[in-house]
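Technical note accompanying the year-one report. For the benefit of new consortium partners, we illustrate the data format agreed upon in the data management plan: each record pairs a sequence with a C-alpha cell string. No post-processing was applied to the example shown here.
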Amino acid sequence: MQYDVDDAPLILTAAEARVLGCLMEKAVTTPDAYPLSFNGLITACNQKTNRNPVVDYDDDLVAEAVEGLRGKHLLYRVDGGGSRVQKYKHRIDERLGILPASQALLTVLLLRGAQTPGELRTRSERMHSFVDTEAVEAEVAETSADISIPLWRRLPQAAGQKEARYMHLLFGEDFIEESPAPVCVASEPAVAAVQQRNERIDELETRVDQLESQLATLQATFAEFRKQFD
C-alpha cells in the first residue's frame, strides 16, 4: 500500500539526521531511557561507538536540529514525567509509515552512512533481526514500493568491493556520498577473517553503546534527583 506523506520536503541537515537517528536507535535499544532528554540527546549524538562520523555537537547545534525536525513533523516534545525536563520522541512511523524492520535499516544508515547489506544486517541486529542479507535487500525493495518518497538508493558497486552499498536519501536525491578508496581484492580466508573481526568489533561496540546509555540514564536520573535539593 502507498502511505500518505506530508507535502513538506523531507530534506535533512547532517545534524537533523544524527538527532533523528539517535532517537530512533534509543527508542528500541534503551526503551527505559526513552524519550530522551536534551542532555541525553546530546550524549547520543556525540557517542563514540556506532557512529560515522564521530561528532562533537554543542547545545546550539542540537537545539537547531530539534527545531528543524519539529518543523518537518519528525519529532515532538513530551512532558518529563512530572519533572521540569522536556524530552523528545521521533515521529518517523507517523511521518512515513515504515515498519520496524525498515526503521532499523534507516536508523543505521542515518547514524553510519552508506553500508553494504551485510553491514546493515549486522549493525541493525539490536533493533531487528534479519535472517540473511537477502532479507535486508527484500525489505529495502518492499519499502521503496510502499512509500511515495525516495528513501534510499543502491550505489554502484565500486572497484575492489564485493558488495554494493545502500545510502539513505534524506539529504536529498542529489547528494553524493564519497565512495571509500578502492582496495585490493583479498583471498577468501583473508576476507572471512576480516569479516569475523568486524563482527566482533560490532558486538563490542554494541556492548559499549549499551553501557554508555545506561551511564547516561543514571547521570540524568541523578541530576534530576539533585534538583530537588537546589
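Partners are asked to follow this layout when depositing records. The helical segments are 14-29, 38-45, 59-71, 92-96, 100-112, 117-123, 133-146, 188-227.
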